[in-house]
Amino acid sequence: MRLNEAVQQLKSHGYKTTAKRKDMLAFFAEADGYRTAKDLISYMEPTYAGISYDTVYRNLHLFREIGVLETTELNGEKHFRFSCSHQHHHHFICKDCGKTKALEICPMDEITQSLGGYEIEGHKFEIYGLCPVCQEE
Question: Hey, CA dihedral for 130, 133, 136, 137, is it positive or negative?
Answer without folding.
Answer: negative
